[in-house]
Amino acid sequence: MAKFDTVRALTRRDISEPVANKLAEQGFKLGDIKKMDVASLTSLLGDEAVAIDTLQKVGGKVPKEDAAKPKKGKAKAKGKAKKKGKGAEDDIAYLEGASDSGLDEGFELGDLGVEDVDLGLEDDEDIIKAEDLPPLREVDRPLTKTEKFIVAELGKIDGWLPRSLITELGHKADTLKMKKTDLRKVVKKSAERFIVNLIDPTESAGIIAAQSIGEPGTQMTMRTFHYAGVAEINVTLGLPRLIEIVDARREPSTPMMEIHVFDEIMNDRDAVERLASEIEMTKLSDVASLTTDIINMEVIIKPNEKRMKRRGMDREHIIKALKKMRRKAYSAIEDVDDAIHVKVGAPSFKKLHALMELIQSLKVKGIDGIRRALIRLETGGYVVYTEGSNLAKVLRLPGVDHTRTTTNNIMEIYEVLGIEAARNSIIREASRTLNEQGLSVDVRHIMLVADLMTYDGAVRAIGRHGISGKKSSVLARAAFEITTAHLLKAGVTGERDSLEGVAENIIVGQPVTIGTGAVELVYSPSDKKKSGGK
Amino acid sequence: MSRFEVMNHIHVPEHRLLSKEEADEVLGKYSISIEELPKIKRSDTCIRSLELRVGEISRGSIVKIIRRSETAGISYAYRLVID
């Protein structure tokens, strides 16, 4: 049925039937085709012209000459989409004033003195030769001689130890200068003990994890207080933060980024400060003094040269930003010697006041969403902390170390770095939240929660909007939340409950499918001793 | 390292595409059917980055993920590629 829909969607966009059928046959949906590049589509369809044509009709990217336009549109769309959600109120003030902002305007290459050329932002979508790609770092550290010996011994006895234990054993053996025979015995014993210490199959690991996290949760405060260490930046802590993480909220209430810079400028305070001011959203009131002239019904803007210079901007920036204001708010902009006059047009105090407010909070420079950027000297160099988060844009700035820069906004990490990074993020954030409160929860429990949340390839909440809501058992969902709605719907549509899970079996009164109950014994009488039939 | 490369980020583990034989071996080793694996989307940034190096990754392939684990040092995970 899905294939038919795809074919229809394609033909509706003027793509020929045979092409549409071929694409649908392969199992591609409209979204997939949109994201393809010309090369892949050509290899599928056989004809490059057809491929380009199809891509255009589907709304995908066409390379080279037209590349600039759709990319910019995509970047804008991404930026706007992020406005939804909790941070929106903060952005409304400047939204009313300017229609576009973001990196495009105030940033010049070479400002930071770092030798870097590639600002080709979304170009991982272009066709790139494998040789041109940056090299990947190695994750697997090669084994030492002792470790190799241990692995070999394990192979002989058909045992297994995790890498961390192998490393620990190897290290200990080296320090004590053990003989091979002794080490062999130790390895054998270790492998045996390891199996004994493993958790039993069908043990209710989920419930144990839930209780292990929930119990310390009752000791956490609901209060949030200042982030100890980084002056001025407020970060949600404690229970509210844990709830945000587990509920997979799109945006945390206090998004924050930790921006690291490359070695070359890591210790250069000026360069890092300049980077911080490039990123930080600058309002007009930060770089100019504003006064209202009641007699002439205008707002007078006197740009402050020193402040403008510190942020690396000039009058042109101001004027460009002013021009983006709502047409109705002003009638004219006049650039006189040392000041810029913005006239209201109508003889209304209210309008003048509104215009003044607008201009004061007008965004002149910086990256969407970054409200403030502060620098802090840490061991190793200067680090920029920001209030507000925009990982996609910040990672691509020259000078920014895109391998170490991070954010506490898990959704952003998912979108920019992938599901595995999101999983790691969840673990880090949750662990940090608990540890800060002085509670130590074994990381395994949190790892289980993170694994569950990222099981489907996307980040799902634990509650009824996510994992718990997707359970196939009616009784389980009814027992969890919104009881009558689930039961009613199930009754009307004739749902069946196969009683496979824990909750439903408890309700019905059968043994639960955990632990002992997970095993079904089958008895097959042996007829060796008996003669004849059963 | 001037260009942004997602796989180089510290929070991102190594992703490797498995061949059909390797994939079947994994399924056999854990006695599972392919749908029981955790999933990863084709539009995932790491999959797209991997595709630039190894060519198109189709739905149904299995990706091996080599993670740094606090508890085990190194741990291997497998994800099924879906749309």
How would you summarize the topology of this molecule?
The complex is a heterodimer of chains A (534) and B (83).
Chain A: H1 2-12, H2 17-25, H3 30-35, H4 38-45, H5 48-58, H6 68-81, H7 88-97, H8 103-106, H9 145-157, H10 163-176, H11 180-197, H12 205-217, H13 238-246, E1 256-260, H14 263-266, H15 269-279, E2 282-283, H16 284-287, E3 288-293, E4 298-303, H17 305-310, H18 315-323, E5 332-335, E6 340-343, H19 349-360, E7 363-365, E8 372-378, E9 381-387, H20 391-395, E10 406-407, H21 410-417, H22 419-436, H23 443-453, H24 474-480, H25 483-493, H26 502-508
Chain B: E1 14-17, H1 20-30, E2 39-41, H2 45-54, E3 62-69, E4 73-82
Parallel strand pairs in B: 2-4
Antiparallel strand pairs in B: 1-3, 3-4
Structure characterization notes:
- The complex is a heterodimer of chains A (534) and B (83).
- By secondary structure, chain A is of the alpha+beta class.
- Among the domains of chain A are: 66 residues; 53 residues; 111 residues, PTS-regulatory domain, PRD, CATH 1.10.1790; 84 residues, Gyrase A, domain 2; 41 residues, Orthogonal Bundle (DNA polymerase, domain 1).
- In chain A, the strands form three sheets. Chain A has a four-stranded antiparallel β-sheet with strand order 8-9-1-10. In chain A, strands 3-4-6-5 form a four-stranded antiparallel β-sheet. In chain A, strands 2-7 form a two-stranded antiparallel ribbon.
- In chain A, helix 4 crosses helix 5, helix 9 packs across helix 10 and helix 12 packs across helix 23.
- Chain A is extended, with a radius of gyration of 31 Å.
- By secondary structure, chain B is of the alpha+beta class.
- Chain B has a single domain, classed as Eukaryotic RPB6 RNA polymerase subunit (Alpha-Beta Complex), CATH 3.90.940.
- Helix content of chain B is 25%, strand content 30%.
- Chain B contains two helices and four strands.
- In chain B, strands 1-3-4-2 form a four-stranded mixed β-sheet.
- In chain B, a hairpin with a 3-residue loop joins strand 3 and strand 4.
- The longest helix of chain B is centred in the first third of the chain and has 11 residues.
- The mean pLDDT of chain B is 89.
- At the A-B interface, helix 3, helix 10, helix 21, helix 22 and helix 23 of A face strand 2, helix 2, strand 3 and strand 4 of B.
